[in-house]
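Schema walk-through. Below, the input block comes first and the output block second. Nothing else is stored per chain. Lengths vary across the set, and this one has 216 residues.
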Amino acid sequence: MDTIYKVIIVLVPMILSLSVHEFAHAWSAYKLGDDTAKRQGRLTLNPLAHIDIIGTIVLPIVLTVQGGGFFFGWAKPVPVNPTNFRRGISMRKGDILTAVAGPFSNIIIAFIASGIVLGMGRFGAISDTNPVIILLTHMFFINIALAVFNIIPVPPLDGHYLLPTEIQAKMRQYQMIIFVMLILAMNFFSAILSVPIGFLARAFVAFWSLIFGGGI
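--- output ---
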């Protein structure tokens, strides 16, 4: 039962966070004039439209059960057609705006979650056995991890859209190889990624602590 509870308390915020992440991509593209994602039913917060069995379900469960290391996952990528962006929006600018919308949505979720946790703590609601606090705390850390992970500048992650277009094109030829290598080397990269993750976590806690007091 402990393992099942542990999986649920991690999987629920993971699925919700990835759904918001992909919705943010779809919403951004739609606002820029591309309705491809909307026509394919991806402009929604419904998790069923975004779940990838391996990246959203299987991998998070495996990482949760084995414990340790860096926790991450992914959902089905949202289709974007840059040629549909409205006049005045270059394809490169539109690609960048659409790409960063995903990680930015995770930052917003983490910010809100940490605020709620600190706010509840201010009124004495924090408890190690409080399922709401546990869920929100996982939501906090998972979203920071997703934001940092997805901003890595390698395809198919969102961060590669920040690279010069020539480099993007060359890297996409080997994106599956690059991504597999990244996953296999994640234990190594976790030490590096823990630096920006820790910085953002401390920054959010510090901000809300100025308002509410206490900490996560």
